[in-house]
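SAMPLE LOG
Freezer: B-3
Tube label: C17
Construct: single chain, 143 aa
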Amino acid sequence: MSVRTSGGSAGEVRNTRQRRAVARALASLEDFISTQDLHALLRERGDSVSLATTYRILQSMSELGELDVLRSDDGEAIYRRCAAEHHHHHLVCRRCGAAVELEAPAVEEWAGRTAAAHGFTEVDHTVEITGLCAACGVRRADG
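STRUCTURE (predicted):
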């Protein structure tokens, strides 16, 4: 899986009924969710939001840095409300998808120094740390 934390410019965003429904649904979840699963959840809750609109809203929220986005090995994007207000990284279980938000000031400093040494500005970066979480590691050891 690759992890991307999106940052974006805070442009004018319409606070529509559909956007509020998506935001409420995401706020009620602790784990990542696919667009199609989120759309199904919205329908179960009685919120009338088309699948295409759900895709557009998630893309917009991601571009504004409101969501964390993971891409599974098959390329499917899954989303979660970002708990941290600033740039951070994740440790992700490659079996179950559990994610832990990490503060990594040493990585931030290294990225800045490396970019500057090569003349780069306005730098963004992605750090991918994957493994098996404790629960999946135990299941693997058991059999």
